[in-house]
Amino acid sequence: MNVAGRPEPEAPLRIAAAILVARDGYMMQLRDPKPTIRLPDHWACFGGGIEPGESAADALVRELGEELELTPRTLRWFTRTAWVLPRVEASSMELDFFEVAISAEEIEAMVQHEGAGRRIMTVEELVREPRVAPWDLAAVMMHARQKALFG
Fold it and tell me: How much of the chain is in helix, strand and coil states, percent to nearest 5?
């Protein structure tokens, strides 16, 4: 069945993202205000593209090192989401989200090289933000409510 207006997506952009779990909430990145990037000036999870031949976990370790000078102690795969974006010709993406616990000492040692800022936010604070990457918000909300959602 042909659905009017629905583009056929190309191969999805593959992304690895960190749900950075701190004692008081989730550390989020404020993306740069550059008009050339997807969702400029929005709050998002740290992470980035998975390179050919790279696993999602390896990509995330690389991205966290590049973006925050953070070497995670542990990664726990949490979920994969897939999106076909509306009004963007043939644009689809798959995101692998990993839970990464971060300590106060690791937060203090972070040096941010990408983005306009970072902040630890509760889920309630994040939901009230007018500019949040919707796929990241969905993953963080699922993480925060996983016991109620998944038992």
Answer: 25, 30, 40
The secondary structure element, H or E, covering residue 150 is: helix 146-150
Report d(CA 33, CA 11) in Å as an integer: 27
Listed by start position, the domains of the chain span 13-150
Q: Which CATH number fits domain 13-150: 3.20.20.80, 3.90.79.10, 3.40.50.1970, 3.40.50.300?
A: 3.90.79.10
Over residues 89-122, the pLDDT tens digits come to 558 899 999 999 999 999 999 999 999 999 999 9
